[in-house]
Amino acid sequence: MSLPNYHPKQLSLSPLENEVLCVIWELGTPTVKDVRDRIVSVDSKRKLAYASVTTILKRLAKKGWIDRYKESRSYRWLALISKEEAQILQAYEQLHQFLAVGHLDAVAAFADSLEPASAEQFEAIAQKIQGLRTDVTPDN
Fold this sequence. Notes:
This protein is mainly alpha-helical. Helices cover 60% and strands 9% of the residues. Helix 1 (15-27) packs across helix 2, helix 1 (15-27) packs across helix 3 and helix 2 (32-42) packs across helix 3 (50-62). The model has no long low-confidence stretch (mean pLDDT 85).
């Protein structure tokens, strides 16, 4: 598994942006009304204006997560990356931020505090990294 070729301009999402994006992943190519109806159907007491959903969709488009196309008299919204690709990108970003701390002692302390199952995953990752290093031959 590798990083997706496409990366949104901005990875961080608000809780409502994330919720709307999840609805798009679930429904495929919904209209604003479809998105609003799905969110409200989960919590009938929730007040969410059509205009608010439109604003969130436009923000997600500006951040590079979704795009739209016109169908008949309305727009349909579609995700530019899958949920799985988004999870890979977000994990990559979190790992980058963690490693940016740059304190070897902090990383070592983290590794020491892992549960046995997590430690096994950490070891598998380390072996994968080592395998990648041995597969790369230096340029001469």
